[in-house]
């Protein structure tokens, strides 16, 4: 039976001349919500409603992990066993109380179901080191093993036992949502036992009972949906107190122009704005608030230097010529320091980010708990660049000269700005220094970068935990190892020690030492981070906090 929308929603949508009610939020987006099954959802407009209706044990509040359905946790000395104390008096939207059995079932289910492209698969890969349910994995991954991994103890605490210490545990826990076991089992989902364990191994549950009629512990409960709308209402029994906005409507509007007009008329409280040029036209418009400089979550922009370029057109290691570079060009620390010093970050922010970029002093995301604001990044100085290049390759590079190939990526204006800055400053330093610029299609550029064929590459990298971020960027075994070819045993030891130490307070000084070392070695250059932009009605309060948490419950009018 088709569910009819509530009267408030009908009234709100029927009249485009009326501003949204004081207790309602209308968020106009460009894409419809597909599946809100919490184990599957990874697309932006699926995750957004999931985060309102469901909750994990902890919340990622812009790099700070705050208690949510758990109030605290303890870890064994080796970091393998984590015990969560659960919050009491928490109710699901159907009025039933949340128990440890629900949390146990939810984590076990996340470790069991979900296609290879699901959120559950990502969490399994991180916590259990299971990249996929291959035949070999299926032989050893049994119900008994799963049951031993997640269980409730006699005190009603949830105990998670892993094969290794996982530094990014809390990040995965924030995305592991608690669901009511009885509702799922009654709806034909996994029984929670061994009898149908194999049938649900890696199963796509996009159309589960939770996807059809979501029931969580979040501040908002499900009301209705159709191809153009997703409707939620405030949960009066929410443990954190009922939110200020009682009704939420995610409304799909394809036209950029229509969304902007709706915002101007007050028919939408938040509208997805396509670009900064459109945003600029909203500045000063009565009833509209423009946000130009909101921080970005868990992302870092860097220039990586490749120490062993896999390009047979280049000279052999150590051989110099004015019309080429050796394959090991960036293995010389003086070359790396010079290229860091000749990058004009102010010009990059002005021309590449339209004036909206956050300066950085390390290659960690700006909101990362291990970032250290006291460290000094490379400073733009052509005098420093000249001094370093005069020392490079035993002093021979300055007199011999070089020609470096620079690649820009099709459709990436930022890569063009980076190449332009380097070309101008390289050729300004010495008449024997040259740079050639060519454009690659994005897919070809990615293949060349990951194949180690580019001298250096500007890219955006993610990772909430510092180990995920730094190991991926710098380690020879990291995802970008082939793109950088860094061989540094001391750095690898520092990475391992920081990863294997348990607890943020103990790890933080280790990361300060590591970041200090990385800055000195200049294996990469931190680029200013692009800032988030948005536009809302002036009546809406709390959007900067929403940008950090992604939770509608922090908004009000």
Give your account of this protein's structure.
With 557 residues, this protein is an alpha+beta fold. It has 3 domains: 1-32 and 227-295 and 533-557, D-Maltodextrin-Binding Protein, domain 2; 36-218, Dipeptide-binding Protein, Domain 1 (Dipeptide-binding Protein, domain 1, Alpha-Beta Complex), CATH 3.90.76; 299-530, Dipeptide-binding Protein, domain 3, CATH 3.10.105.10. The strands form 7 sheets. A 5-stranded mixed β-sheet has the order 8-9-10-1-11, with helices on both faces.
What's the number of extended β-strand segments?
Answer: 20
Q: What is the global morphology?
A: globular
Named CATH architecture of the largest domain: Roll
Compute the number of structural domains: 3
* Order of strands in the sheet with most strands: 8-9-10-1-11
**CATH homologous superfamily name of the largest domain?**
Dipeptide-binding Protein, Domain 3
- Quick one: biggest sheet? 5 strands, mixed
Number of helices: 22
The percent range for helix content is: 25-40%
Q: Strand content of the residues, in percent?
A: 15-25%
* Uncertain ranges: 1-17
Quaternary structure of the protein: single chain
- The overall average pLDDT, rounded, is 92
**Name of the CATH first level of the largest domain:** Alpha Beta
Q: Which topology of the largest domain does CATH recognise?
A: Dipeptide-binding Protein, domain 3
Whole-angstrom Rg: 26 Å
* Distance linking N and C termini: 35 Å
Q: Which structural category do the helix and sheet elements fall into? A: alpha+beta
């Amino acid at each position: 039976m088709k569910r009819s929308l509530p009267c408030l929603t009908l009234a709100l949508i029927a009249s485009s001349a009326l501003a949204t009610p004081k207790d309602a939020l209308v968020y106009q987006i460009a894409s419809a919500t597909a599946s809100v099954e919490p184990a599957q959802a990874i697309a932006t407009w699926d995750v957004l409603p999931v985060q309102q209706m469901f909750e994990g044990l902890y919340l990622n509040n812009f790099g700070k992990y705050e208690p949510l359905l758990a109030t605290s946790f303890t870890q064994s000395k080796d970091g393998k066993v984590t015990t969560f104390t659960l919050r009491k008096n928490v109710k699901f939207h159907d009025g039933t109380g949340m128990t440890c059995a629900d949390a146990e079932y939810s984590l076990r289910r996340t470790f069991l179901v979900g296609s290879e492209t699901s959120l559950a698969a990502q969490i399994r890969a991180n916590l259990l080191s299971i990249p996929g349910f291959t035949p070999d994995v299926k032989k050893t991954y049994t119900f008994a093993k799963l049951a031993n991994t997640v269980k409730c103890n006699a005190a009603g605490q949830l105990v998670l036992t892993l094969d290794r210490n996982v530094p990014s545990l809390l990040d995965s826990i924030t995305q592991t949502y608690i669901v009511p076991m009885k509702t799922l089992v009654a709806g034909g989902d996994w029984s929670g036992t061994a009898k149908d364990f194999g049938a649900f191994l890696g199963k796509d549950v996009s159309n589960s009972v939770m996807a059809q009629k979501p029931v969580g512990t979040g501040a908002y409960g499900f009301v209705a949906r159709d191809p153009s709308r997703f409707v939620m209402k405030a949960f009066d029994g929410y443990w954190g107190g009922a939110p200020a906005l009682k009704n939420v409507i995610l409304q799909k509007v394809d036209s950029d122009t229509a969304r902007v007009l709706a915002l101007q008329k007050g028919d939408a409280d938040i509208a997805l704005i396509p670009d900064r040029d459109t945003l600029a036209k909203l500045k000063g418009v009565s009833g509209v608030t423009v946000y130009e400089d909101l921080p970005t979550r868990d992302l870092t922009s860097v220039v990586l230097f490749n120490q062993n370029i896999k390009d047979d057109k280049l000279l052999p290691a150590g051989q110099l010529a004015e019309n080429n570079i050796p394959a090991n060009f960036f293995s010389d620390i003086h070359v790396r320091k010079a290229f860091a010093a000749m990058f004009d970050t102010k010009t990059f922010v002005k021309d590449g980010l339209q004036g909206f970029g956050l300066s950085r002093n390390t290659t960690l995301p700006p909101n990362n708990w291990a970032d250290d604001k006291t460290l000094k990044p490379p400073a733009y100085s052509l005098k420093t660049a000249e001094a370093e290049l005069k020392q490079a390759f035993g002093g021979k590079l300055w007199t011999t000269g070089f020609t470096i190939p620079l690649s820009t990526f099709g459709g990436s204006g930022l890569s063009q700005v980076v190449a332009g800055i380097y070309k101008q400053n390289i050729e300004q330093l010495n008449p024997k220094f040259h740079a050639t610029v060519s454009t690659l299609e994005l897919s070809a550029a990615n293949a060349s970068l990951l194949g180690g064929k580019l001298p250096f590459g500007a890219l955006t990298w993610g990772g909430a935990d510092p180990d995920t971020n730094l190991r991926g960027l710098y380690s020879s075994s990291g995802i970008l190892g082939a793109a950088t070819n860094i061989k540094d045993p001391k750095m690898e030891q520092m990475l391992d020690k920081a990863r294997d130490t348990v607890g943020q307070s103990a790890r933080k000084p280790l990361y300060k030492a590591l970041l200090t070392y990385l800055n000195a070695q200049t294996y990469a250059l931190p680029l200013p981070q692009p800032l988030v932009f948005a536009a809302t009605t002036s009546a809406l309060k709390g959007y900067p906090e929403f940008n950090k948490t992604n939770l509608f419950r922090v908004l009000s009018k």
